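Before a colleague's protein record goes any further, I have to sign it off. I want your independent view on whether this chain really folds as the tokens say. The record follows directly below this note.
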Amino acid sequence: MDVRFETDRFPFIKARFFRQVEGRRKVRVIVIHSMEAPEKDETAENVARFFQTTETPASAHLCIDNNSIVQCVFDNNVAFAAPGCNHDGIQLELAGFARQTRAEWMDPFSILVMENAANAAAQYCLKYDIPPVHLTNDELKLGQQGIVGHVQATQVFKLGSHTDPGTGFPWDHFIARVEHHLAERRERLKKEPLA
């Protein structure tokens, strides 16, 4: 991991609940969530404001919709999002619902959501040296690095009941887009090395 590399500076709406970490946090997984919120242009901002004001201990690092990414918890701090994968996870909330079919995830709105999320995930893969792979439950349980859904944290660690981003989430498309953005960023770093 190159500690000089940082993710893009996203607009910030501070979540009410998170745990501050002293020193550098070891991150091994990127966790994908569905917000259970509608496909609208300001869903990222609305869910970020919910995290800012809620009485329920809940938060995520990023809220993502079709046209924006809002940061709610800084990378090095722990968001309250997926028990079992909080302490070593980066949490990405995507506009949409776990009940969506593959076709609904592949509609024009959600394609843009996934493109924004894939770009953000690629930055975290680069920052924390995480391979752009969708882990199986066994791989998650064994402590491997990669990308998982909230449902997998539920199934592996049995500390919640969430099933997002749902069985219709197009993991093949999403991982391919993460790989694309990661390759672009690595190529850019070759041409413009960090000072």
In short: The first helix runs from residue 43 to 53. The radius of gyration is 15 Å.
